[in-house]
Amino acid sequence: MNHPTADLVQAFSETHYTVHREPPFTLRIGQPCTELMPLMAQHGSACAAFITAWNPWSQTLSAAENQARQHTLKTQLRQRGLPFVYGLGQHPSNGWPGEASVLVLGLDRQAAMALAKAHEQHAFVWAGGDGVAELVWPEWAKLLRPDGGRFVRQF
Description:
Structural class: alpha+beta
Order of helices and strands: HEEHEHEEHEE
Radius of gyration: 14 Å
Number of strands: 7
Strand order of the largest sheet: 2-1-4-5-3-6-7
């Protein structure tokens, strides 16, 4: 596992986390998402996590490898009876290809951390009942924003 660089932290914080439903909506880090709250309510959920299995530890894999990893993630979610909606995480301008993802409804923060670790992900997006998207980095305690301020909490 490689540790995230400041550039990677910035890229993750700027990424658009799009949920593919009608109409689609986008989670933006630090911003409330009014479309998310009714979706959570519809499923009786107080929280949601946006996660992928693509590109473990931010290392590029082939499309076939990524698709197989994502299939495994979705199978695990189905086995656990967790509802999810397909999505895509993509930075708006850095040229990194979008990563197939899922928005998992009712996945609490601790369970999302375990899932992210199992699928070798640096971070995931989590939102509680207020619908504010938060970038969670489970492995590192003191990630800083590019301006030097506190970026995220470590759990």
